[in-house]
Amino acid sequence: QLQFVESGGGLVQPGGSLTLTCVASGLPIDYYAVGWFRQAPGQEREGISCISTTRNTNYRDSMRGRATVSRDNARRSVYLQINDLKPEDTAVYYCAALGPQYVQTQCDRMASDEYYSWGPGTQVTVSS
Questions:
Q1: pLDDT for 97-107, tens place per residue?
Q2: Fewer C-beta neighbours within 10 Å, C or N terminus of the chain?
Q3: Are 21 and 7 in contact (CB under 8 A)?
Q4: Beta partners for residue 72, in sequence order
Q5: Tens of pLDDT along 38-70?
Q6: What DSSP string runs through 56-99?
Q7: 44 — phi, psi (to 5°)?
Q8: CA 42, CA 30: separation in Å to the nearest integer?
């Protein structure tokens, strides 16, 4: 069974950077597109990035130009680097696998109900 654990969150000043890590266990990630999501208090979970099995990537408009997603299948890891962090980026960040019923070589799906095997999340707080 595929499971994920996220890490790398913390308290960052506005304008700072973070790299979040998502590590898989149970199954190799080679055959899965992986998405990054976040959820702020009182808000719905939103997709912010995706990387396909062929390393096609996609980003939410608010993250485009500030975020870079990458993967290392040998380490069963997916990374999300976010630069120029803003207070509105404060949220719990999650990773998950795209459902097997979808094409894994594309990254045109970033709705949370299309993903599964959610990790527990890592808190990112952007504040001075």
A1: 999 999 999 98
A2: N
A3: yes
A4: 77
A5: 999 999 999 999 999 999 999 999 999 999 999
A6: -EEE-TTTTTTEEEEEEGGGTEEEEEE-S--GGG-EEEEEEEEP
A7: -80, 155
A8: 34
Long-range contacts of 42-51, Cβ-Cβ distance < 8 Å, separation of 24 or more: 43/91, 44/112, 45/94, 45/112, 46/112, 47/110, 47/111, 47/112, 48/80, 48/110, 49/80, 49/110, 50/98, 50/107, 50/109, 50/110, 51/78, 51/107
Please give the Cα distance from 74 to 80 (Å, whole number): 17
Are residues 19 and 81 in contact, defined by beta-carbon separation less than 8 angstroms? yes
φ and ψ of 86, to 5 deg: -120, 155
Q: Which two tokens stand for residue 66?
A: 């500030």
Answer yes or no: are the C-beta atoms of 38 and 121 closer than 8 Å: no
Band (91; pLDDT cuts 50, 70, 90): very high
